[in-house]
From TrEMBL:
One GO term (biological process): defense response to fungus
Protein name according to UniProt: Defensin-like protein
Signal peptide feature range: 1-26
Lineage top rank: taxon: Eukaryota
Annotated transmembrane regions: none
PANTHER family named among the record's database cross-references: DEFENSIN-LIKE PROTEIN 183 (PTHR36788:SF2)
């Protein structure tokens, strides 16, 4: 019985070590960043530090990176009321200006009902 658990533990240890080695080496992952342009590599490195962007044969910008890198965290903030003078377009612009370089984008959210509670909600990389 002890020998069985010893063998089982040894096999589990070998398997886990092999898995950890693969995680340390990392597999290659990729994100599709849309249509390809001259800024493909720059878009990639801003989204995935250490990543490398390149265009594929179909004109798509692909961002290749080590899979063990964590995905960027997204934060949400309310940045003011939406009004007739400041609609969704204004909200998006204000969000981008408030969080420059962090891919901020906003939308007017009327959670309770139109005109009752309309707030500019901004999502950005934190």
């Amino acid at each position: 019985m002890v020998k069985f658990f010893s063998s089982y533990f040894l096999i589990l240890l070998v398997f886990t070590s092999g898995t950890l080695l693969c995680m340390v080496k990392g597999d290659l992952c990729w994100d599709d960043l849309g249509g390809c342009d001259a800024a493909c590599d720059q878009k990639c490195t801003s989204k995935r530090p250490g990543g490398k962007g390149s265009c594929d044969d179909h004109g798509r910008c692909k961002c290749y990176y080590d899979c063990i890198l964590p995905a960027p965290k997204t934060c949400t903030a309310g940045i003011g009321r939406c009004t007739a003078a400041c609609d969704n377009t204004c909200c998006r612009k204000n969000c981008a200006a408030k969080f420059p370089g962090r891919e901020g984008h906003g939308i007017c959210n009327n959670a309770i009902g139109p005109g009752i509670y309309n707030y500019c909600i901004c999502q950005y990389k934190c």
